[in-house]
Amino acid sequence: MRRSFALSGAIALILALTLTPLGGDNVVYVTDLDETIDALRRSDKQFLLDLLLEAGANILLFLPFGAALALRGFSIGKTAVYGFVFSAAVESAQFLFISGRTTSVDDVLLNSLGAALGQALMSHYKPGNR
């Protein structure tokens, strides 16, 4: 029962935070590696901080999802795949139906990483693994 609640709660959190309309036009965005390298060269601290915060938020968003899948016995590989598929579905829904959202391939990759990290952390720390 707790496992189902944990997974349902993680999914509900993700959907609430990602499928809320923000108004305005939708944007499709991919972080350009040249843009990041240029920011590093220029020591553009604000750009790099924004990039780091955005990446961290995407990873943190999917940590509970990965942890909940670990509680249900999913492997890290399956968790990463489920994280990827779920994130791709969210990003597609944002692009197609939700106004004012940014759709990004980067988000899908970072969310997948977050799910895998959540699974790895929960698998490492859950009772019986000490």
Question: Can you put this structure into words, describing what you see?
Answer:
This protein is mainly alpha-helical and 130 residues long. The protein has one domain. The protein is 75% helix and 5% strand. The protein contains five helices and two strands. The protein has helices at residues 2-18, 33-42, 45-71, 76-97, 105-125; strands at residues 27-29, 102-104. Helix 1 (2-18) runs antiparallel to helix 3. It is globular, with a radius of gyration of 16 Å. It starts with a helix and ends in a 5-residue tail after the last helix. The mean pLDDT is 89.
Low-confidence stretches: none
Total separate domains = 1
Proportion of helical residues:
over 70%
Mean model confidence by pLDDT = 89
Summarize the structure.
The two termini are 24 Å apart. The mean pLDDT is 89.
What topology does this entry show?
Elements: H1 2-18, E1 27-29, H2 33-42, H3 45-71, H4 76-97, E2 102-104, H5 105-125
Parallel strand pairs: 1-2
Helix pairs in contact: 1-3, 3-4, 3-5, 4-5
Q: Any key phrases for this structure?
A:
130 residues; mainly alpha; two-stranded parallel ribbon; 5 helices; 2 strands
